[in-house]
Design goal:
globular; 3-stranded antiparallel sheet; Glycosyltransferase RgtA/B/C/D-like domain-containing protein; 5% strand; transmembrane; 4-stranded mixed sheet; mainly alpha; transmembrane helix; membrane
Length: 660
């Protein structure tokens, strides 16, 4: 555990060490400097340790070398020339007034967000793991990945639930968790530390970005609230539920609805799962409130958003500067951090380039440096994924539209944010055509970023970028971000400058724009953790499985391959870090991976063809009821004749395959 915290400290020190390279003109504020330094420390240290671990085939050696080099260098650098920002907190407290009320709201948002993150994965009574239903399966994949990378010896990057298949999932945040886990940190802490750090950074950097654009911390707070809690028209169903509750049981019925809402008001459909079946509806509202959908169980997304926001800050401060190319060192690390953020950033920069031709040389250097770093990662991802090679990118109109025309679908999913953005877009264009308004429009609106937001809205509504259409929302989120900060933010600024009617309109707009999302957010925070309908357990809750995993850890090699059931949490990898030949196929499909060969081989092996098992380097078969359920053709008689039973507990046996 000591080495885990030494590594964390080394990451922070390394970030402050390298930050000055990206801000040679000292244009970042002290607040932005601290946020960026923490981000850069986590990002660069993660990649450096990854490269060293792959080179030396040892994760522990790579981490020790990084700590041994980074801490002394950072100490020497800070002793020679201290560069930590000096923030006068006493002066801030002394002059605190209504002008600083934004601090209270920002802290409140952060505390509420941390409470949300604490519900993603936690230990219930008896110390067993439990995860929120909306991300229960995703969390299992992350835990499988963390355990696998933490225990691999020699160190390799392989898919934890599909032998011989590329790990095409952007795994950097899980790799950082694996570092903490490899030094003995509890799996929950190892899971949470990077998520809390990068999640907090993503929110704070979005706030800093909005503050730069809107030039008002109060408006920046409103923009941040819209980004994370903005939602569609699902509140209409909420009012219908209230009416039904009142008709059934008066005010008691109302209190029942408020205490336990019968629906998730930003997730009103029957196709995407992630909620109890009784909450399904036919409303086709699938834009789940972003703080839950993107910034909690999608572990790589907070890291991607933090990087994206930092790059946008750099763009605002250095877009016309010759030093802009330096930010390519960060942009080039996006593919393995979060691929959809990289794709969205590519669309953004391709849209903006034509507005910054006067600085084309710096932009060209930026693009070249980004490509040099990103291409090896893209080639690696492309080699294993049909999404990038040829399979799934195709025309696909309207994202998840099925039951109505696109404008109705967009309206009920994106709500007032969509119409506010559209109003600014159309009105800004019309007024720009009128000479007397042109100068004012240029001053108030960022035409280049509004154009980029339009591109980021159109593309995921015209093309499918993932096997599962729902996943296009990961690109749409960046339209959402730009639309709020550069579009809706201007509308809010205009309303705030008006008299009472403007302020009332602003309050009404924000209230209705976040109502459905706030209801779902509050329901998630208020949900009891012992609720079996919202929080699910994993294989560690079964004592027999824990005993089997303990035997596996003590008696098998770290890279021994197991043939198991196709559950989300096969115990050999989930609890012991050993790779499995074929796990949950849903993940592999959404990643665009071809697992059909693994499926056919597994069917043959459980039927008794152990020669194929040896050819595939399968060392053990985990024979239990889960395997029997997933492979009805299992021939236990043949398997027991040709293998050695090395462990048995209840109806579970571990069979060792003797290969010559």
């Amino acid at each position: 555990m000591l080495f885990s915290f030494l590594f964390l400290f080394a990451q922070l020190a390394f970030g402050f060490l390298v930050f000055d390279f990206f801000d040679p003109q000292k244009r970042f504020s002290h607040f932005e400097r601290v946020l960026a330094s923490v981000l850069l420390g986590g990002l660069f240290s993660g990649f450096l340790v990854l490269v060293l671990a792959l080179w030396w085939q040892s994760l522990s050696l790579a981490v020790l070398v990084f700590i041994s080099l980074s801490l002394p260098i950072a100490a020497f650098r800070f002793l020679k020339k201290p560069s930590l920002p000096k923030i006068n907190l006493s002066g801030f407290y002394r002059h605190f007034s209504r002008q600083n009320i934004w601090v209270v709201f920002l802290l409140a948002l952060m505390v509420l967000y941390w409470l949300l993150l604490s519900t993603v994965l936690f230990r219930a009574g008896g110390g067993t793991l439990r995860g929120a239903l909306v991300g229960w399966g995703d969390i299992a994949l992350h835990l499988n990945m963390i355990e696998r990378m933490a225990t691999a010896q020699p160190f390799v990057i392989d898919h934890p639930v599909a032998a011989g298949v590329h790990l095409v999932y952007p795994f950097l945040i899980n790799f950082i968790s694996a570092i903490f886990r490899s030094f003995g940190l509890d799996i929950v802490l190892a899971f949470q530390i990077p998520l809390f750090i990068f999640g907090s950074l993503s929110l704070l950097l979005v706030f800093a970005l909005a503050d730069r654009v809107l030039r008002s911390k109060n408006l920046a707070i409103l923009a941040l609230i819209l980004v994370i809690l903005g939602s569609g028209l699902g509140f209409k169903v909420f009012f219908e539920d209230l009416q039904k509750g009142y008709q059934r049981n008066g005010f008691i019925g109302l209190s029942t609805i408020l205490a336990d809402p019968p629906h998730e008001y930003t997730h009103l459909d029957n196709r995407t799962g992630g909620k109890p079946a009784e909450k399904d509806t036919n409303d086709n509202i699938v834009w789940i409130v972003p703080v839950i959908s993107f910034l909690s169980h999608q572990r790589s997304f907070p890291l991607g958003l933090a990087i994206f926001s930092f790059l946008l800050l750099g763009l605002l401060l250095y877009d016309q500067d010759r030093q802009f190319w330096r930010f390519g060192l960060v942009a080039g690390l996006l593919p393995l951090s979060h691929a959809h953020s990289f794709l969205a950033f590519f669309f953004l920069m391709a849209s903006l380039f034509w507005f910054f031709l006067s600085n084309w040389k710096a932009w060209f250097k930026f693009g070249l440096l980004t490509a040099l770093l990103a291409l090896p990662q893209i080639i690696y991802l492309k080699a294993g994924s049909q999404v990038l090679s040829s399979g799934f990118i195709r025309p696909w109109f309207g994202w998840m539209t099925t039951d109505s025309n696109p404008f109705v679908f967009w309206s009920k999913n994106f709500g007032l944010v969509f119409w506010g953005w559209l109003l600014v877009l159309v009105l800004g264009f019309v007024l720009f055509l009128i000479p007397r308004f042109r100068a004012r429009i240029k001053e108030r609106l960022s035409a280049e970023f509004l154009f980029a937001s339009l591109v980021l809205f159109i593309l995921p509504n015209l093309f499918l970028f993932q096997p599962w259409p729902f996943d296009n929302n990961k690109i749409l989120f960046y339209w959402w971000l730009l639309a709020i900060i550069f579009g809706v933010g201007s509308l809010l600024s205009f309303l705030w400058q008006q008299r009472v009617w403007g302020k009332l309109a602003l309050i009404s707009f924000v209230f209705l724009a976040i109502l459905a999302g706030s209801l779902d957010f509050a329901a998630r925070l208020g949900r009891p953790r012992n609720s079996n309908s919202h929080y699910y357990g994993y294989s560690d809750s079964n004592k027999d499985k824990v005993a089997s995993a303990s035997w596996i850890r003590d008696n098998t090699k770290p890279n021994d391959l197991f043939l198991t059931s196709r559950d989300v949490d096969p115990l050999s990898v989930f609890l012991a870090g050993r790779p499995v030949y074929l796990g949950f196929e849903g993940w592999l499909w959404t990643e665009g991976l071809d697992y059909s060969r693994n499926r056919m081989v597994a069917e043959s092996v459980v039927a008794g063809d152990l020669k194929k098992a040896c050819d595939e380097k399968i060392a053990y078969i985990l024979l239990d009821d889960d395997l029997r359920r997933d492979y009805p053709r299992v021939d236990e008689k043949k398997l027991l004749e040709k293998t050695q039973v090395v462990f048995a507990s209840g109806n579970r046996q571990i069979l060792k395959i003797a290969c010559q």
